[in-house]
Amino acid sequence: MILPLAILLYENLIPGTHLVSRLQDLGYRVQTVHDPRLLVEQSAREKPLVAVLDLFSTKLDVCREIKSLKNNSATAHVPIVAFADQTNSELQEAAYAAGADLVANNTAVVLHLPQFLEQVLQVD
């Protein structure tokens, strides 16, 4: 049986490595992306069930990549859980505006990942 795939984008080791472990404990295969420029291409090729994205990046605007994911017919359906430092409400709002399905702070995404995944993966 093939486990569902989660794409995880992060630069900071914490919470990134914690999320890798949490996702694996929840039964996901995890493919990490460290360069946001590869996110859309990798998602279109690998067809993940969900994307978990750190909004902080020194390389590129992750919110722009979220918008690209949502505008690409091959990846528009992929639910996105985004996270950022809790003091960066502006970045969190930008992620929602770009198309993220759920945005949380760094601590909450690790602690409540199962509930967040359940929420974004619900089919109406």
Mean of residue pLDDT?
94
Q: How would a crystallographer describe the biggest sheet? A: 5 strands, parallel
Helical residues, percent: 40-55%
Strand content: 15-25%
Shape: globular
Strand line-up of the largest beta sheet? 2-1-3-4-5
**Class of secondary structure makeup:** alpha/beta
What does this entry look like structurally?
The protein is of the alpha/beta class. The protein has one domain: Rossmann fold (3-Layer(aba) Sandwich), CATH 3.40.50. 45% of the residues lie in helices and 19% in strands. The chain contains 6 helices and 5 strands; from the N terminus they run βαβαβαβαβαα. The chain has helices at residues 13-25, 39-46, 62-71, 89-98, 106-111, 113-121, and strands spanning 5-9, 29-33, 50-54, 80-84, 102-105. The chain has a 5-stranded parallel β-sheet, with helices on both faces. Strand 1 (5-9), helix 1 (13-25) and strand 2 (29-33) form a beta-alpha-beta unit. Helix 3 (62-71) runs parallel beside helix 4 (89-98). The model has no long low-confidence stretch (mean pLDDT 94).
